[in-house]
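Hi R.,

Here's the input for the protoporphyrin IX containing FE complex you asked about:
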Amino acid sequence: MTTPAEQPHEAPAARDFPLRRTCPFAPPAAYAELRAEQPVAPVTLPTGRPAWVVTRYEDVRELLADPRASADIRRPAFPALGEGEQEVGARLRPFIRTDAPEHTRYRRMLLPEFTVRRVRAMRPAVQALVDELVDTMLAGGAPADFVPLYANAVSTSVICELLGIPRENLEFFRDVTRISGSRHSTAEQVSEALGGLFALLTDLIRAREKDPGDDLLSRLVVQHLRTGALTLPELLSTVGITINAGRETSTNMLALSTLLLLRRPDLVAELRADPALMPAAVDELLRVMSIADSIPLRVAAEDIDIPGGTLPRDEGVIALLAGANHDPEQFAHPERVDFHRPSNHHVAFGYGVHQCIGQHLARLELEVALGTLIRRVPTLRLAEPDAEVAFKHDSATFGIERLMVAW
Ligand code: HEM
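And here is the predicted structure with protoporphyrin IX containing FE in place:
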């Protein structure tokens, strides 16, 4: 007879990943179990490959701050959620999926464009865009689908404003991001969608070479393409990832936040009574929703010990941001939406060297777009039964497919 201590250690069964949200404003319920019982847990990805997931706040931050956690998409164990993503990513090498020193080179080029000062200077332009889009939505009459008409239109218009790209391509950008961000897209579909984007950007770059303006694309052309610091494919990949990373995320945050506020008039009343609460409210919404939950994909380049366990060398790991942002050790009553949290050091924008470069811009967009809706469309309401709101369960960031509203 064997005593319990002598029994062979049973490896825990791997769960299928991603897990599905049951409440759109909270992580999948199993994250709480994982945090409590298996802080470093094995999973099977949709590609059939194995990986680990990490769910505790402390572990997520340690992992993302560790230089041995590689973001290099060319590594065979890279835990991509779709085949297309890895194959195309390994070819195009967007800087979000590279390591130092390569990553540092791109990050240094872009950082001056995303400082608090530069983003603050964009506020009047963002406000003007948002006002125009509210006018257009109202003029079109109710019921209206909030996602393309407002959430996507705001995020895409802001990126176009930043880069100096004409705004007539809203739908085109939406399709590119939808295809390149879907787990079900094949490498061919991703390549084709990005090829269309790159063709459009190449024309714009050629025009800027002849006649530069006062925008991000012109500055990248003048300071980095003309000097030979960046090749054309490198510039295309950098601008492409900025568009992709900045559009879908902000669209989803804006649509989900609006749905939450429609369900919680008490929170809207708080914001109406004290508009200065808006920045704290935006950060709390970012924490609660944690829409970019499984964006930080890494490979352990060495064995990495974190408080919750060991990540074995050459194996993939996903730092689950929603797990960290709902860790009760860090956030009291994490499920509560509380615009008055005394400290809110959430990781909705990631952590470490890859932490979202566009975070100040994202906050600005959300503050202006939500604040303007509350002020200008006080009668906004859902125009379909709650159960019919369609969510994006299969895209890189969680969001809403369609949200019918009236006013
Ligand atoms: C609510 C909106 C947003 C959320 C939740 C979000 C989330 C994130 C997260 C979690 C990462 C880190 C990925 C990792 O560690 O692997 C990231 C990186 C990045 N984000 Fe955002 N993002 C948002 C908006 C934006 C915007 C508006 C832009 C640009 C206009 C942007 C551009 C980028 C870029 C270029 C990176 C890569 C940074 C690097 O690797 O150094 N994001 N974002």
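One thing worth noting: The mean pLDDT is 93.

Cheers,
M.
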